[in-house]
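Per your request, structure below.
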């Protein structure tokens, strides 16, 4: 994420009676504690709320983005966010439904805490009367002895209740089973809520609905220890209309860190959203108003070929995560690759991302004849076929037509001193990386 978000331009939709009604319309409420009381709470005086992010990877991903934007919407409604990055829970790992996590080293987790804190900071305002605050649960768990943990916190948890939690139950019925370490995770998360209630008067925790057992471990702990009622809100797990898991691309998560998923790849992910999903995605992942989204919905239904919804979605979310400048570069790269822009103005990272899925070849930098390039890149099967392509006006190098079959491409035309983009006709593309130029 190379660009700061323009937080000042963000606002909730004033057409809703309150923030709870907007969250419901956007499809962000899957499960919660007492809905009537929670709506009253959020419609009243500012309250402190939190969401936790565990450093089990060096970056947050699209599932976390749902929570970050929910936190921002609540902050825009006047409430006070606490961004918790779990320096201690990250050492343990939330139980996955299928297998035990591999524990990362303390140094690795500590390093990742810093990465995630920086990402969280980009989505919240740390100024003003309801400024966000960052917290790390290692601060209150590290000084606690095992005996004190068992006496002061563990005694309030009932094993039968813990066994019924979804993640625990699924693991118990698997061949892998579950370790005592991961089994104890819900106690740690419950303790976090108790600590934040005591330190900041925190009244609400948000998270994905698959975290519901962990969320309610905190509400129950506070009820038992403090005799107070606090709240939890679980957002739905985002899935595609065909039932597949959202945010996965060939088995890889869509990360928010530009070094792990380039802005170009990120933009293309959203641009490829199915028509059946695009309106729901606009509701969850953008600050567009109900009226604006309703208008786009008409276009999606009546003119799906125009892909207005996908283009708006891709722009808005990429700008949120990577900034407007990076997003404009991505759009320019897409146009340039297909012949509608200047390739030479693209930085090397953007060019590499934009051409990453194209066929590619490596050649030596001496005597770069157009015929040899077309054959080496796979755009032509033979030299005679390549000559026909050139003769028919269908050969392009860096979007410039080449009409002489004996043309030799000079080193001055190499993009960033080593790349060429070849095109046969309108849509057949390939890249060549030149060595020794």
């Amino acid at each position: 994420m190379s660009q700061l978000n323009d937080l000042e331009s963000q606002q909730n939709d004033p057409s809703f009676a309150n923030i709870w009604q907007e969250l419901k319309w956007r499809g962000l409420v899957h499960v919660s504690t007492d809905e009537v009381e929670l709506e009253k709470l959020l419609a009243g005086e500012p309250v402190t709320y939190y969401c936790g992010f565990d450093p089990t990877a060096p970056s947050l991903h699209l599932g976390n983005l749902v929570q970050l934007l929910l936190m921002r919407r609540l902050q825009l409604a006047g409430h006070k966010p606490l961004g918790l990055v779990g320096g201690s829970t990250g050492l343990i790992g939330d139980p996955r439904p299928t297998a035990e996590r591999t524990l990362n080293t303390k140094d690795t987790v500590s390093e990742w805490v810093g990465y995630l804190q920086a990402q969280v900071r980009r989505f919240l305002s740390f100024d003003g009367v309801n400024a966000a605050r960052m917290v790390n649960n290692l601060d209150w768990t590290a000084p606690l002895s095992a005996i004190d943990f068992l006496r002061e916190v563990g005694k309030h948890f009932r094993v039968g209740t813990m066994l019924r939690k979804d993640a625990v139950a699924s693991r118990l019925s698997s061949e892998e089973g579950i370790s005592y370490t991961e089994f104890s995770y819900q106690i740690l998360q419950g303790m976090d809520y108790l600590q934040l209630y005591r330190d900041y008067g925190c009244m609400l925790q948000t998270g994905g609905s698959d975290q519901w057992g962990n969320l309610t471990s905190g509400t129950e702990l506070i009820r038992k220890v403090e005799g107070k009622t606090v709240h939890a809100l679980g957002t739905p797990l985002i899935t595609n209309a065909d039932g597949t898991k959202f945010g996965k691309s060939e088995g890889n998560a869509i990360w928010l860190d530009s070094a792990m998923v380039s802005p170009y790849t990120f933009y293309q992910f959203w641009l490829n959203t199915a028509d059946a999903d695009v309106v729901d995605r606009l509701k969850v992942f953008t600050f567009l108003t109900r009226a604006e989204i309703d208008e786009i919905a008409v276009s999606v239904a009546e003119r799906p070929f125009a892909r207005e919804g996908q283009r708006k979605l891709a722009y808005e979310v990429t700008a949120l995560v990577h900034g407007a400048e990076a997003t404009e570069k991505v759009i320019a790269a897409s146009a340039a690759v297909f012949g509608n822009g200047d390739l030479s103005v693209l930085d090397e990272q953007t060019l590499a991302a934009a051409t990453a899925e194209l066929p590619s070849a490596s050649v030596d930098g001496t005597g770069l004849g157009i015929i040899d390039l077309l054959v080496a890149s796979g755009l032509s099967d033979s030299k005679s076929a390549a000559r026909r392509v050139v003769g028919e006006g269908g050969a392009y190098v860096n979007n410039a037509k080449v009409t002489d079959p004996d043309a030799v491409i000079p080193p001055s035309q190499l993009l960033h001193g080593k790349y060429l983009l070849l095109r046969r006709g309108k849509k057949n593309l390939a890249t060549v990386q030149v060595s020794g130029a």
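The mean pLDDT is 92.

Regards,
D.
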